[in-house]
Write a sequence for this structure.
């Protein structure tokens, strides 16, 4: 029997429209940078896609820089904005304590290799960044801060961060936000947020793997990571991946059923509270994405739960990073005040556009048994 | 049966898992992450549990077509195996960490967790056999005696043997590699692992010195005369002849051997070859792999090293210690090693050597 997929925060099924778009474009010949008829045809399709994506996040088409992943977009933004700041003697990188590794790791790399000072803004028990801390930091060290990067919403808990307030506090300091999880799930306007840079990824919204975008203010110059043909504003080189880009656009312009997904999530949470009374939802009191639920099941180990769920035909996740396949205690949950043990007893379930009440019912038909077996198998 | 195949990333455990599937069992592959900070790559035959090994294990599971997971047992391994290894060395004994790993990790922590999760047993790529006989399931040597690993499995209780499946016991290593090749397993020609997996450099003495320090102490003869100095008593083994650095020759010019390591006084005692000879050994904490050994004196074989010879002996249990008396004297036997009693090819039981004479 096929497994029920409740891991949409990891990746989503390719939407039929995206599938149609990518397969059609794969059969078209032409490098979008070529000047002849073939090239122009591909360029036309690509620029149509760029405009459509720009419209989805309320930015200018010229502000869209296509990349090969959200990770690449985050790296270009964080490192590029930091190098700009460094040229003016600013060496501080401000990130939140709950960033994805695609921000956390480049920040640490800047610290180790480039002499950056990384300051992490703590979060409260609900997973929301401490704005007083940030305000105080900006008041004291405004002139030293090269870049602030705070994610729009968290990939493990779905908790949404107050980016507009961050931008208001930041003043002239450039702000980047990783909006990979938020795109299409909640209103997301580059213009209204007022950030300098914003990261998107196609495969979280029904698009293909291997295509992302950095939205970067018009005429804003930052150093490149990849040098070559200079295709994307000299900031990103490499022949543009037209098939993936048109599929990204096809997926990004479909309607995301936020209300329906949120209703499923809420039914799921209600059922968990009923069936497994000591389980608790992380960030439940916060404003969150409609599809992500992060639950702690005290007295269990998440790797055991994942195995049992997989065996019971449910694909879920811990949401945290793996090191050699070993799940580390989530830095997000630790930052929210968890102990190593409770952080290691947590799972992420994430619903998507294709999820149904039948999925929720199926997961709930196996979850109580999985939790009690998981408790018995927790021999620590 | 529902089984968990422990997959190290090597050829043996991969073929073992494939055979278990072929035998009709419902199998899932599990790789044990035993190192807290694994290295990226294996260097030759040394070490294990690298990230590369876990990739190899995953790839083998995918080729076989079974689910695959990684279990983090680094804490259990450190507490049960690495700490024990250090404690034994600091007490002047020579431990075998593979036995401890089988005893405390593979057929304890893993088997217990497997059973709690509704699985019936653990499949490994050990070269050993089990048989069902009048006394239930018993542990036996592998057909390929040169690869036989029953010695390191001799710490398993009947309960643990009941949950252990060894699909490779009837085949030679050469044939296992050929079979892996036929099955399309990329690990077919991967080198065997040797040495101690958590000492990736292979330099045991250096590894111990880093952790236990290298306090200088005397090397004395049997009369207590100091004839040299050592850098950490635990880096010596009973029977060792080379590397003693002694400058005072014996009267007749014959070589000296390490006879004894005294951790409390940090002293290494050396003497003549014939003084290494022992005929009786006693072992503590016995484990019976079948019917319990009694005070009745029985004939059998004792093995004291992982790939050592089976020595004819008479053995019995005195109520506390397992005692074996050899037909022929043996030279250089370290305490801390396991003494494993065999009745032909069947493993009778084992104990940790605490006294020799």
């Amino acid at each position: 029997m096929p497994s029920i997929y409740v891991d949409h925060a990891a990746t989503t099924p390719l939407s039929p429209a995206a599938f149609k778009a990518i397969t059609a474009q794969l059969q078209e010949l032409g490098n979008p940078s070529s000047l002849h008829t073939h090239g122009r045809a591909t360029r036309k399709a690509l620029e149509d896609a760029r405009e459509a994506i720009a419209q989805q996040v309320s930015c200018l088409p010229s502000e869209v820089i296509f990349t090969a992943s959200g990770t690449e977009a985050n790296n270009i933004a964080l490192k590029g904005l930091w190098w700009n700041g460094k040229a003016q003697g600013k060496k501080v990188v401000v990130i939140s304590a709950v960033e994805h590794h695609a921000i956390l790791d480049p920040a640490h790399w800047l610290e180790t290799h480039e002499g950056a000072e990384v300051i992490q803004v703590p979060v409260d028990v609900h997973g929301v960044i401490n704005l007083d801390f940030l305000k105080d930091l900006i008041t004291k060290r405004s002139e030293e801060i090269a870049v602030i990067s705070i994610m729009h919403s968290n990939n493990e808990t779905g908790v949404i961060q107050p980016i507009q307030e961050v931008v208001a506090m930041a003043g002239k300091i450039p702000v980047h936000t990783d909006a990979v999880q938020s795109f299409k799930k909640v209103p997301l306007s580059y213009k209204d947020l007022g950030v300098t840079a914003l990261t998107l990824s196609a495969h979280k919204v029904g698009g293909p793997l291997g295509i992302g975008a950095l939205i970067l203010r018009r005429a804003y110059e930052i150093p490149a990571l990849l040098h070559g043909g200079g295709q994307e504003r000299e900031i990103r080189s490499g022949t543009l991946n037209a098939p993936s880009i048109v599929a990204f656009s096809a997926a990004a312009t479909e309607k995301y059923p936020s209300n329906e997904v949120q209703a499923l999530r809420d039914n799921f949470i209600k059922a968990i509270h009923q069936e497994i009374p000591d389980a608790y939802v992380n960030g439940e009191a916060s404003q969150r994405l409609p599809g992500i639920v992060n639950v702690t099941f005290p007295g269990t180990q998440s790797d055991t739960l994942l195995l049992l769920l997989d065996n019971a035909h449910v694909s879920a996740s811990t949401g945290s990073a793996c090191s050699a396949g070993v799940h580390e205690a989530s830095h997000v949950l630790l930052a929210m005040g968890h102990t190593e043990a409770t952080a290691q007893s947590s799972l992420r379930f994430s619903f998507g556009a294709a999820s149904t009440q039948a999925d929720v019912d199926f997961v709930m038909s196996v979850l109580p048994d999985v939790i009690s077996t998981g408790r018995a198998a927790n021999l620590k | 049966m529902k089984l968990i195949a422990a997959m190290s990333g090597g050829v043996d455990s991969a073929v073992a898992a494939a055979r278990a599937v072929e035998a009709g069992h419902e199998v899932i592959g599990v790789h044990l992450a035993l190192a807290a900070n694994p290295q990226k790559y294996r260097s030759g035959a040394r070490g294990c549990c690298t990230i590369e090994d876990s990739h190899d294990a995953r790839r083998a599971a995918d080729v076989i077509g079974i689910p695959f997971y990684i279990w983090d047992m680094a804490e259990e391994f450190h507490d049960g195996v690495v700490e024990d290894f250090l404690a034994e060395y600091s007490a002047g004994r020579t431990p075998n960490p593979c036995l401890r790993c089988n005893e405390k990790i593979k057929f304890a922590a893993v088997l217990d967790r497997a059973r709690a999760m509704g699985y019936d047993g653990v499949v490994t790529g050990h070269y050993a056999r089990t048989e069902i006989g009048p006394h239930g399931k018993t542990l036996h040597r592998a057909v390929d005696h040169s690869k036989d690993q029953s010695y390191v499995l001799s710490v398993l209780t009947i309960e643990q043997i009941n949950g252990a499946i060894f699909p490779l016991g009837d085949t030679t290593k050469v044939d296992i590699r050929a079979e892996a090749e036929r099955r399309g397993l990329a690990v077919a020609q991967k080198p065997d692992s040797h040495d101690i997996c958590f000492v990736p450099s292979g330099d045991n003495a250096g590894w111990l010195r880093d952790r236990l320090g290298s306090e200088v102490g005397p090397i004395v003869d049997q009369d207590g005369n100091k004839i040299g100095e050592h850098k950490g008593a635990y880096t010596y083994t009973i029977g060792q002849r080379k590397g003693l650095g002694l400058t005072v020759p014996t009267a007749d010019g014959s070589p000296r051997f390490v006879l004894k390591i005294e951790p409390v006084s940090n002293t290494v005692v050396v003497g003549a070859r014939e003084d290494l000879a022992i005929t009786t050994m006693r072992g503590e904490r016995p484990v019976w792999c079948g019917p319990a050994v009694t005070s009745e004196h029985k004939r059998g074989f004792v093995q004291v090293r992982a790939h050592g010879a089976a020595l004819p002996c008479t053995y019995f249990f005195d109520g506390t210690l397992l005692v074996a008396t050899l037909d022929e004297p043996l030279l250089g036997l370290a305490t801390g090693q396991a003494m494993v009693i065999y009745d032909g090819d069947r493993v009778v039981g084992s104990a940790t050597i605490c006294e020799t004479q």
Notes: Chain B touches chain A at residues 28, 31, 33, 38, 51, 54, 58, 67, 69-72, 74-75, 109, 112-113, 116-118 (CB under 8 Å).
